[in-house]
Specification:
The protein is mainly β. It is about 5% helix and about 50% strand. The strands form eleven sheets. The protein has a 22-stranded antiparallel β-barrel. It has a five-stranded mixed sheet with strand order 9-14-15-12-13. A four-stranded mixed sheet has the order 4-1-8-6, with no helix packed on it. Strand 41 and strand 42 form a beta hairpin. The protein is elongated, with a radius of gyration of 29 Å.
Length: about 900
């Protein structure tokens, strides 16, 4: 008996004989998926046996060849963890060295739209983010994904509603680099991104389900590995080593890497400063076959990252109160530059026990524990954390941990037309939050105002105002004049650092318990394939929900034309995000936190789980043997739709809950697997993200206050990525790769515009908007933006550009004369938060790479060299502008990197 996959990947084992039934040793056996690029080769042993383990669940083309015999080809569907036994008989004849791929090898009779990517592709795909390369890979290679800053990606119209399955371990918490540390991409063998209706085995965050198969040393009798190092723009340096080794019944793969860079996060300025960061990763996978039917698999991972919160020009030489803050004449001075930093430590331990039961069944049992420890540090002088009045009025520090412990188990049975899987998952997430906050803006909680209801510096009590010729800030004058000034809140006075106060401490904790049970069956009947299943979720956190969720899919294969037609439906339970869940749930009930979180009166603190009905209709079509397309049209209707809001200019984000959302759109992928050494793919999508007020739960939000539908800030009309890769002819010739990413632009509700008709618009004067008239003509008041924010938006008025320190003259501009190359400003009278919101300007980004995998023509040991350029045209563009969730960020300026590797 040979080693086999631990039960979260497929196994194909075979025996090769000749026409007389005699065993055939030394035959070459290859297995490949031409679309994903997965390819492996082995030889039969002295007993005529061969085996492939750790196979992603996909269709494969298997070729057996030996000199003096005609090659044998077979198509195999690996759709279960149950090992597949293959018998091959070689006939005497001429050997063919050509792998005959046909159109039928390019399509899958599957009702679920998904994308398969093997490391053969992403080893050569120019990726933007070195610290979140898995996110970059999913963004570039999967349709329906809107790119955002800091490794965030929004799948099919939802904010980060993505889950990962790492060798069967479910991870539903956010994985961008401001929340967690991702599994290093060098430890990954292949990924499958499910963007269709999720099968019953998947729950939690299911807009995108990313199944990851890690690399294994199982059966690798001769140690193999690589040592790489790179250096590039922004002083970015990396180093990494990986090693695979094992035998017939055991294996180990270990990977260690590190990164140090001057541009860790995407900053709010195209010019990079105060943006250093570093990261280190260790991943180890251990496989061991205990008996012919029992095996174990263990994943061990630890990652640590440290990084600065990037500064804007507004964060330099911050002016704040240095004395006398409680008197009539506070003294202001330079309190230094903002210096906010974060540290994240992540560990993961995930063993899996697998037992093969007979020839048709496999049982898996896998406990796991995963922890993210997040620490956020304010500036050494907390008063330096003061940002623009519309952005940050508080200083904050945080220590937060998210520990997810649980167990998943499943039983797979394959017989005849049925492929049945029954499983369960129990998880308990321990949330611990500790926040320290203080007011650092002297006018945020002013006891006094002037006659125009403008807040005035100094003083500690409204009774002091009259003597200074001022007015008590009780809200009455502001209401009379229509001012947005907040009334003085005496509860905040003890925590106002500008008036001699101290800091407020908030400690929150809860345990979120989740139980899921599911059963599903994939039924193959001729050209028909039926996926039927049901899932039951029990959620018990700060709120409770229980739901049964049917999942149904139908696919029909038209073999004559290599066409697959499909329909699917899924009901899913939508649960709140765990990050800062306690702060968002309890903060608005706290008299100190409520004004700091901008809580809306009447909004509940209990974020109730919601539910979604989603429908998919699609097809897959092969054209000959060199081109295949696959696409879906999508309808998603969610009750209690979740999003995030943010506390100032910090990574302290918290979940909020809207009444409902409607998300229609399409996603499409086209592949050229290999045509004369050329391979290529195109992914494209157009997905709306329409959200409907009111906000029903969570802390404060700054959009949707008009009560009308709006596009959330990750809505994007259209995006596409084209990747082309070419292996230059010749035994030792280099390869080249090229990306073109086009984005039509995310919604940017904070872009100033002129509109007096849309009652939901922030441009409406009734909502405090900047719409004014200048000499009777439509005008825009820009005083709500600092000069630097005007510069970040690229604003130009009648040819005069805003600079980081000098804004538009007079902070007013005729609407017809206000333009920008970075944001799209609706024409006067046309802005509508649902149909025509302000957006980031469309952009095209180009990346390129060139490499040689065997510089010195070595047989056993090889040297490689790779040159990569990201944004090679140095496009000056934004991801977002004053986003409710993440603020302002620019895309990466031109970044060049050289990587040298040694492979043995």
């Amino acid at each position: 008996m040979w080693s086999q996959s631990a039960g979260n990947a497929g196994t194909v084992a075979g025996t090769v004989t000749d026409a007389t039934g005699a065993i055939v040793p030394g035959a070459t056996v290859s297995i490949e998926n031409p679309v994903s690029g997965y390819s492996r080769v082995t030889t039969t042993d002295g007993s005529g046996h061969y085996q492939f383990t750790n196979l992603p669940l996909n269709p494969y083309h298997v070729v057996v060849s030996l000199t003096g015999f005609a090659s044998s080809t077979q198509d195999i569907q690996v759709r279960s963890f149950v090992p597949i036994a293959v018998k091959t008989t070689l006939m005497v004849g001429a050997t063919s060295t050509v792998v005959d791929v046909t159109g039928s090898d390019l399509v899958e009779n599957d009702s679920t739209f998904h994308t398969d990517v093997d490391r053969g592709l992403f080893d050569k795909l120019p990726l933007e983010s070195q610290s979140s390369s898995l996110s970059s890979l999913v963004t570039l290679a999967s349709p329906g994904v809107a790119a955002d800053s800091n490794g965030l990606f929004h799948g099919l119209g939802d904010h980060a509603s993505n889950s990962f399955s790492i060798d069967g371990q479910p991870i539903t918490d956010q994985q961008s680099k401001v929340f967690s540390n991702q599994i290093p991409s060098n430890s990954i063998q292949s990924i499958e991104v499910i963007s269709g209706a999720p099968p019953a085995e998947f729950g939690g965050k299911t807009s995108l389900v990313i199944q990851v198969t890690t690399r294994s040393g199982l059966g690798v009798r001769k140690p193999t590995g690589s040592v790489t190092t790179s250096y590039g723009t922004f002083g970015s340096a990396t180093a990494g080593v990986d090693l695979s080794y094992g035998g017939e019944k055991w294996g180990n793969f270990i990977e260690v890497d590190g990164l140090n860079t001057g541009r860790f996060l995407d900053p709010p300025e195209f010019t990079v400063f105060h943006d250093k960061g570093n990261e280190a990763n260790v991943f180890d996978r251990i496989d061991r076959q205990l008996t012919p039917v029992d095996s174990i698999h263990l994943n061990l991972n630890y990652s640590r990252s440290w990084f600065q919160t990037p500064n804007a020009f507004d964060n330099l030489n911050v002016q704040n109160v240095i004395s006398g803050g409680g008197g009539a004449n506070p003294i202001f001075g330079n309190v230094g530059n903002t210096d906010q930093r974060s540290k994240i430590g992540t560990f993961d331990i995930a063993p899996t026990y697998t037992r093969t039961i007979g020839a048709n069944s496999v049982f898996n049992f896998g406990p796991y524990i995963r922890k993210d420890q997040y620490d956020y540090y304010p500036s050494g002088n907390p008063l330096a954390d003061l940002g623009p009045p519309n952005l940050q009025n508080q200083t904050i520090s945080q220590t937060r941990s998210l520990t997810n412990a649980g167990v998943h188990t499943d039983f797979s049975y394959v017989k005849g037309i049925n492929n049945i899987k029954v499983g369960a998952n129990y998880s308990q997430t321990f949330l611990r939050e500790s926040d320290t906050l203080g007011v650092v803006a002297n006018t945020f909680n002013s006891p006094c105002t002037d006659g125009a209801a403008n807040p005035v510096n100094g003083f500690t009590d409204p009774s002091q105002c009259a003597a200074a010729g001022l007015f008590p800030n009780d809200g009455m004058l502001a209401k009379t004049l229509g001012s947005q000034t907040l009334a003085f809140n005496p509860v905040l006075l003890p925590f106002d650092l500008t008036r001699g106060g101290g800091q407020f401490n908030f400690i929150g904790r809860t345990d979120v318990k989740e139980v899921a049970l599911y059963v599903e069956d994939q039924i193959k009947a001729g050209n028909w394939l039926f996926n039927v299943g049901i899932r039951g979720d029990l959620y018990n956190g700060l709120t409770v929900a229980r739901q049964a969720e049917p999942r149904v899919g139908i696919a029909y294969s038209v073999k004559q034309t290599n066409t697959v037609l499909r329909l699917s439906y899924a009901r899913t339970l939508e649960t709140p995000f765990n990050e800062n869940l306690v702060l968002s749930s309890e903060g608005c009930g706290n008299e100190v936190l409520s004004p700091l979180l901008l809580c809306t009166p009447g909004v509940s603190g209990n974020l109730q789980p919601g539910y979604r009905n989603e429908f998919h209709a699609g097809l897959q079509q092969a054209f000959g043997k060199n081109f295949v397309i696959s696409g879906d049209y999508i309808w998603k209707y969610t009750h209690n739709a979740f999003d995030f809001s943010v506390l100032g200019n910090t990574p302290i984000t918290f979940p909020i809950d809207w009444h409902n959302s409607k998300i229609p759109g399409f996603a499409l992928r086209a592949d050229v697997p290999n045509f004369h050494n050329l391979s290529a793919f195109v992914v494209m999508s157009s997905v709306a993200a329409r959200f409907f007020p009111p906000q029903v739960a969570g802390a404060g939000a700054t959009v949707g206050n008009g009560g009308f539908p709006f596009r959330i800030d990750h809505d994007e009309r259209y995006n596409q990525t084209t990747h082309v890769q070419y292996q230059i002819a010749g035994k030792h010739s280099p390869w080249v790769g090229f990306n073109w990413r086009f984005d039509s632009g995310l919604t940017a509700g904070s872009v100033p515009c002129y509109n007096v008709t849309d009652p939901n618009s922030l441009c409406n004067p009734a909502n405090g908007g900047p719409s004014i008239t200048i000499n009777g003509q439509p005008g825009i008041d820009l005083s709500g933006l600092t000069p630097d924010q005007q510069f970040q938006a690229g604003l130009t008025c009648n040819g005069v550009k805003a600079t980081p320190f000098v804004g538009i003259p007079g902070n007013q501009c005729l609407a017809s004369q206000l333009t920008s190359k970075l944001v799209s400003i609706p024409a006067p009278g046309t802005e509508n938060d649902d149909k025509n919101p302000p957006r980031i300007q469309e952009r095209s980004l180009f990346d390129a790479s060139i490499g040689q995998d065997n510089l010195f023509s070595g047989d056993k040991n090889k040297w490689s060299l790779r040159l990569t350029g990201v944004n090679i045209t140095n496009k000056y563009a934004l991801y977002n502008f004053l986003s409710t969730f993440s603020g302002t960020h620019y895309v990466t300026p031109r970044a060049l990197t050289a990587e040298l590797g040694f492979h043995f």
